[in-house]
Design brief:
The complex is a heterodimer of chains A (135) and B (311). Chain A is of the alpha/beta class and 135 residues long. Chain A is 41% helix and 19% strand. Chain A is built from five helices and five strands. The longest helix of chain A has 14 residues. Chain B has 311 residues and is α/β, with parallel strands linked by helices. Chain B folds into three domains: 40 residues; 208 residues, P-loop containing nucleotide triphosphate hydrolases (Rossmann fold), CATH 3.40.50.300; 51 residues, no CATH class. Chain B has a seven-stranded parallel beta sheet with strand order 4-2-5-1-6-7-8, with helices on both faces. In chain B, helix 2 crosses helix 3. Chain B is globular and about 60 Å long. The chains are: A alpha/beta (135), B alpha/beta (311). Chains A and B meet through helix 1, strand 2 and helix 2 of A and helix 2, helix 3, strand 3 and strand 4 of B.
């Protein structure tokens, strides 16, 4: 086995809940791809269980959640719970979408290291991932 | 480290996932895990699913896995998607087509990036298959990157190779060509609800009728994976092929051929690495410049590099 191999960062981009628009998630996935990450994209309408299970099976370093429906304070804690339940407690968490400023504190205390809103430069997301990932 | 192996042997899926990462990233621990787990492998039926981009491989793989679950078989899936040759990044999107399996404890899906390997596979695919085999899945399915005419490497790793075709993608001259079609153990015409499916089936039949007498002719099956049509028949055909491999002795032959291929390709890798280590960058650069200037041909230069290590 080679000792010089470099590993790509593995990122799960997931959309919990029922909103059907995933343009933002795809743009972020694409930016991370272009930033050299291996991005697992699971599509729309994922339950918290499905997201946590995908994170476990894919052994990702990062989980990014995208939501537009307003149900983030309902769904994100459940995703975090499901991750913990599976022992996936060392991934970098971030989220994005239509999320009011006043909810940032609640999300930070859940463990989300960043909240990206419309208008974010995708390069900032890539930079955030590289600077915060535990590799 | 031993803790992870212990958990793996107790069928802890997180341990499986972690070990696969280390094997895939070719870390020193990864090599050690592989050494420990390899003796536990060798029991699984390894199935390859290949075909063009958009032919329905992922959907078919998911539908096949669901059909296996109805027969109470556990399934491991490795789904490969391409890496960017420029950034090494990748979008791994095969899970999207396998949502129905997402919470089934008898199914484990792992996406892998091609990381520049040829043949629609990933560089460490054989090692990751061995790990999944050792975990004890009844079946391991490998879904390749969208393949063209020449990506035949899957047949080295997989015991049963399914080639997914679609109606409306070319005339019978395409099917006459050498290459990928020759490695198919089972031919599937997927999206069989689209026009032209029956024509494609008869074109494939006509092609197979030209096979040498006495050779095994792969069955041709129609599926509509999105609706689940034709999957039971496909599963039966896969089981039949496996039974044929076992009864004919071809399975052990396949294992040996695969082992031979693997050991030689790993040896090649090791030698290449030794050569890289033994060659200072300036020396390599000097050779490169002479070749580019046409003062030296690449074969002679390579002999020189290899000679430094092997002499």
């Amino acid at each position: 086995m080679s000792t010089t191999a470099t590993a790509q960062i593995r990122v799960l981009i997931a959309k919990p809940g029922l909103d059907g628009h995933d343009r933002g998630a795809k743009v972020v996935a694409r930016a991370l791809r272009d930033g050299g990450c291996e991005v697992i994209y699971t599509g729309i309408r994922q339950t918290p269980e499905m997201i946590a299970e995908a994170a476990l099976q894919e052994d990702v370093d990062v989980v990014g959640l995208s939501i537009l429906s307003g149900a983030h304070l309902e769904l994100f804690p459940r995703v975090v719970d499901e991750l913990k339940k599976r022992g996936v407690d060392d991934v970098l968490l971030f989220c994005g979408g239509i999320i009011p400023e006043e909810d940032t504190a609640a999300l930070t205390s859940l463990g989300f290291k960043a909240v990206f809103r419309p208008g974010t430069n995708t390069q900032d997301i890539v930079k955030f991932v590289y600077e915060n990932v535990k590799k | 480290m031993d803790d992870l192996v212990e958990r793996f042997l107790k069928k802890d899926r997180r341990a499986l996932a972690r070990i696969i990462s280390r094997v895939e990233n070719e870390t020193p621990e990864g090599g050690e895990y592989l050494r420990l787990l390899f003796p536990h492998s060798g029991k699984t039926h390894i199935i390859g699913i290949t075909g063009g981009a958009g032919s329905g491989k992922s959907t078919l793989t998911g539908a096949l896995a669901a059909a296996y679950r109805k027969r109470e078989k556990t399934v491991g899936i490795i789904a490969v998607d391409p890496s960017s040759p420029f950034t090494k990044g990748a979008i791994l999107g095969d899970r999207i087509r396998m949502q129905d399996l997402a919470l089934d404890p008898g199914v484990y899906v792992r996406s892998m990036a091609g990381r520049g390997a040829l043949g629609g596979l990933a560089p460490t695919i054989a090692d990751v298959v061995a790990v999944m085999d050792a975990f004890g899945f009844d079946v391991v399915m490998i879904e390749t990157i969208g393949a063209g005419q020449d990506e035949v490497e899957i047949a080295g790793t997989a015991m049963t190779t399914i080639l997914v075709n679609n109606p409306g993608t070319g005339d019978d001259i395409q099917a006459l060509k050498a290459g990928i079609i020759e490695i198919a153990d089972i031919l599937v015409v997927n999206k069989a609800d689209h026009p032209g499916a029956d024509i494609l089936v008869s074109q494939l039949q006509a092609l197979l009728a030209l096979s040498p007498a006495g050779s095994r002719r792969p069955p041709i099956l129609k599926t509509t994976a999105t609706k689940g049509d034709g999957l039971d028949e496909l599963l039966d055909a896969v089981a039949e092929h496996y039974a044929y491999l076992q009864s004919s002795g071809l399975l052990s032959k396949h294992r040996e051929e695969d082992a031979r291929h693997q050991v030689l390709s790993i040896a090649r890798q090791i030698l290449l690495e030794r050569i890289r280590q033994a060659t200072p960058e300036e020396a390599l650069q000097a050779l490169v410049e002479r070749i580019a200037a046409r003062e030296l041909d690449p074969h002679t230069a390579a002999e020189e590099l290899a000679g430094n290590v092997l002499a």
